[in-house]
Specification:
The structure is a homodimer of 98-residue chains. With 98 residues, chain A is of the alpha+beta class. Chain A has a single domain, classed as Winged helix-like DNA-binding domain superfamily/Winged helix DNA-binding domain (Arc Repressor Mutant, subunit A, Orthogonal Bundle). A three-stranded antiparallel beta sheet of chain A has the order 1-3-2. In chain A, a hairpin with a 2-residue loop joins strand 2 and strand 3. In chain A, helix 1 runs antiparallel to helix 4. Chains A and B meet through helix 1 and helix 6 of A and helix 1 and helix 6 of B. The structure holds a DNA duplex (30 and 30 nucleotides).
DNA sequence: TCGATTGTTCGATATTATTCGAACAATAGC
DNA sequence: GCTATTGTTCGAATAATATCGAACAATCGA
C-alpha cells in the first residue's frame, strides 16, 4: 500500500502527476503540509477521490494515516527526493508559474 | 505541431514521460544529442514510433526537423528549462539511478 | 448500541491510450 | 520518371483509466 523508496518507479510517479486532479492534490498538500481526503476533494464524489489517492499512495507520492474516522494525507517529499532528487521541487515550482 | 514554450502544459509533459518507450527515447536523446526516428525504435513498428514521437512533439519535449528522407529529433532542453526549471534534469538524473 | 461521519471497495460505463498493419506522402539517387 | 528509403496517417483491436452510485467497514459521540 505504501511502497518503500527502493520500489518507487519513475513512470508511476510521472503518471500519477499527469492527471490534473492529482496534480492539484499534490499542490495543495505542498502548501498546507497535510490534509484529509475530504479537504482535498473539490466537490468530487468520494469514490473518485479514493481512486486518485490510491494511485498517489501506490506511486509513493503520498502517505495516508488514519486519524479517527478521517484519513490524513501528507507528501512523502523526503522519500521522493532521496530516489528522484529535485523532481518534486521542479514539479511544484512549475505548477506555481502555471 | 511544435508548440511554443508558453503553450507547454505540465500535465502533457508528465504524461508524455510516463510511458516507458517515450522515456527511453528521451534518455537516448539526452545521451546522443540527436537521432533519427529509425535510430530510436527498438525494433518497434514505424507506426507505433510515429505515435510516440507525436506525443513527444506536442508536449514540447522533442523537436523534429526534416533531413532528407529521415527526420532528426532533438530534445528541447532549453525551452523546457525556461518553463519548467530543473524538471528535465531531475527526470534524466532519476533515470540514471534506475 | 445507535446514528453520523469518513473513506474504501465493488460494478458498470465511458473515455482515452497503446499497438500494429496497410496505405499514403516526401525525398534522394539513378 | 522510377525505385528505395523514411515517416506519417488511417483504421481497428486491445488495454488501461476515469468517473460515479451504491454497498460496505471503521471510528467517534451521545
Amino acid at each position: 500500500m505504501h511502497p518503500s523508496p527502493s520500489d518507487f518507479r519513475l513512470e508511476a510517479v510521472l503518471h500519477a502527476l499527469s492527471d490534473p486532479v492529482r496534480l492539484s492534490i499534490i499542490r495543495q498538500l505542498a502548501r498546507e503540509g497535510e490534509a484529509t481526503c475530504a479537504a482535498l476533494d473539490g466537490g468530487r464524489p468520494k469514490s473518485s477521490m479514493s481512486h486518485h489517492f490510491r494511485i498517489l499512495r501506490e506511486s509513493g507520492l503520498v502517505k495516508t494515516r488514519n486519524e479517527g474516522t478521517s484519513h490524513m494525507n501528507e507528501l512523502r517529499a523526503q522519500d521522493l527526493d532521496k530516489v528522484f532528487p529535485g523532481l518534486l521541487t521542479a514539479i511544484l515550482n512549475a505548477t506555481l508559474t502555471v
